[in-house]
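Milestone M4 deliverable, item 7.
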Amino acid sequence: MNAGADLLPCDGLSPIQLNGTAQNDSLVQWVTDGTGSLSPNANTLNATYVPTATDSIAGGVHLILTAYGTGTCGNASDALFIGVGPTRIANAGTDLNVCADGSPVQLAGNITGVSGGTWSTNGTGTFVPDANALNTQLHVPSAPDLVFQQLSFVLTTTGNMGRPRTTTRWRYTSTSHPR
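Output delivered:
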């Protein structure tokens, strides 16, 4: 019997397909030290493990697959480790309608599970203090920015430990100010 190779998925909370194998067994059972669930159940050889945020905080879980032998065959167990990496979430905030008068726009993004994030835009204005600040971030629009009907802002995770980045988009719609 074999529980399969250790796994390090890129997305911390995505379901993980298990690939155990067993021969001469009457029943198999998965047991975990994590808080996730097994689908469709713990007695399915190729079940799916659905991790939880607690598994992500712990950095991973161990799973043990036991095959209960038939006839003269004894029971056998094998283990694997699933490194449930941090969940990477970028949240750029809610869309805004602002007056196109050149005033700085407050950006309020947050990042979960990694060390930071970077703002980008389709405009040409300036990020203050810089594109890597999150909650204290201001965007000072340039003259061309004031002509656009909408500016889009993208917050992208950084410090992903070799895993794909995540992004979220935010935009503000400029409205004319009263004359």
